[in-house]
Amino acid sequence: MFRGVFAMNPTCMVCGHRFEREPGFFQGAMYVSWVLGVGEALVLALAAMFLLAPAIGLPGAIAALVVVHLACVPVLFRYSRVIWAHANIGTLDARDPARLRRLDRNRL
Ligand SMILES: [Zn+2]
Predict the structure, then answer these.
(1) How many whole angstroms from 98 Cα to the centroid of ligand 1?
(2) Is residue 4 part of a domain?
(3) Alpha carbon of 18 to ligand 1 centroid (Å)
(4) Residue 35 falls within a domain, yes or no?
(5) Ligand 1: centre distance to CA 14 (Å)
């Protein structure tokens, strides 16, 4: 699905499925990203508060939390798009002419 940290292939290399089915398709992935990001930040905040803050102080713990959270952004981006694409795979119209053409092309 991905060919770089943030760059996506336009279609699946195996079946030809077009990932961005319509302009703005991946805007919905922002909701998935928000949920994943809040969960991850909550876990990081608890770890920073109870594990780091007693040892290095609150400002250091907050700085470490921000650095780790920013390092996780590419992972959150990629997984949110993968989850969004899989959550919507069932909404594909099997009779979609463009999809049928892609399938025929891949059979040759
Ligand atoms: Zn595929």
Answers:
(1) 15
(2) no
(3) 9
(4) yes
(5) 5
